[in-house]
Design goal:
Two copies of one chain form a homodimer.
Chain A lengths: L4 E4 L4 H12 L5 E6 L6 E4 L2 E9 L3 H6 L7 E4 L2 E4 L1 H11 L10 H18 L5 H10 L3 H24 L11 H4 L1 H10 L8 H11 L24
Helix pairs in contact in A: 1-3, 1-8, 4-6, 5-6
Chain lengths: 233, 233
């Protein structure tokens, strides 16, 4: 198998999920940063070739792999794969060990439901682009909006986790649900969500933070992360 | 198997997806409407018992099945299942015929990617509650917002479908991707999206509209649909 290529952006929640999945499956890959806020790819500055070239969303090489121009995009086994959860399900089917889904149908459904609650009910409403657009519309409205929707989603998530969690989101096996949790907790903190309301989310998040396969996927450790991350908000 | 119960709202995109999936799998079910815009359940008016009682989101019977208080919720085989795509994947695993996913891993990934693009990148940003909240913030801003994000999503969706579609979204087999398409086209029309820009989306949408298993899932045919649907906007 040729070395897979992951098109990623350091702070993209969806890219983070796929980095965790690749790490859990022990798949080595090449990291290619897509700068979501640049109109122009940068492979060199003056005469110096950049150690990490940064591609923009419109770069023809990137668009060839994903006409939707979104990260993450994973080039693997000759395929160009898009949408974080679809990529994660593909990785689980192509590389079954360790599994991302329990064997029992009900536990599989609960794991996917928690993943989808994060991916479709919380994340899209507090994405970086949404936050920016609403703050430009009215000063601090984006801040209010993101805080509001993360709280709305976390209230439901806390209830779901009280019902299903053990050590991890669903029982004691690490599943697709856990892969989606760290990025949304990270964002909740950026949007000043009072996490003391959500002790189950916090507990599982702390367990995942200590997991050796989760650590290398953290945004701050990516080659395109700025040195002082909070200043980028 | 006891008759499954679907908690649904006639105009909810996510409920519509599950109605299509149940119809395709030939699963008979009881329809229980959840009125997303009412604070109070109505099982009777004066001394008359309603033919179709309407439950509100806070109804204890409903909350017992889904603490996140969202539709759709499917009670089946003794389980309470939530999140439309998780329910659809469960139905596909528990009732394999006809399948919602192709056999080939790449085609499965493309089918899931199209489904997820609709479910996580388009639908959440134009949900009824978002439209209402932004129109209350500033007259017609919700209209602008929903039109903008459906167009943004449809540009990418059209590109994906040009790449992957045959008769259906991915080749000539009906998949999980198709199950998610009708509701987002229906909403696009409500938000005055110019559909002539998206001929591939339109073509597949028309094919699905004619599918006998898709027809009964249409919002206008649900027991909780008002007689004149457009007036409800």
């Amino acid at each position: 198998m040729a070395k897979p290529i992951l098109y990623s952006y350091w702070r993209s929640s969806c890219s983070w999920r796929v980095r965790i999945a690749l790490s859990l499956k022990n798949i080595d890959y090449e990291y290619r940063p897509i700068d979501l806020f640049s109109e122009e790819s940068k492979v060199s500055i003056f005469q110096f070739t950049l150690r990490i070239p940064r591609f923009c969303q419109n770069d023809p090489e990137f668009v060839k792999h994903n006409p939707a121009k979104k990260v993450p995009t994973l080039v693997i086994n000759g395929l160009s794969l898009t949408e974080s959860l679809a990529i994660i399900e593909y990785l689980d089917e192509a590389f079954p060990d360790p599994p991302f889904l329990p064997k029992e149908l009900d536990q599989r459904a609960y794991s996917r439901a928690i993943a989808l609650h994060i991916v479709s009910s919380i994340q899209p409403l507090q994405a970086i682009s949404i936050h920016k657009m609403l703050n430009e519309k009215e000063k601090r409205y984006g801040d209010f909006w993101c805080n509001h929707f993360v709280n709305r989603g976390f209230k439901a998530l806390e209830e779901l986790l009280i019902k299903y969690s053990g050590k991890y989101c669903v029982g004691n096996q690490l599943t697709i649900a856990d892969i989606n949790l760290p990025s949304i907790i990270y964002n909740a903190k950026i949007y000043n969500v009072d996490m003391t309301q959500y002790p189950t989310i916090v507990r599982i998040g702390e367990t995942l933070n200590e997991h050796p396969k989760f650590k290398p996927a953290h945004p701050d450790l990516q080659p395109d992360a700025p040195k002082t991350t909070k200043a980028d908000m």
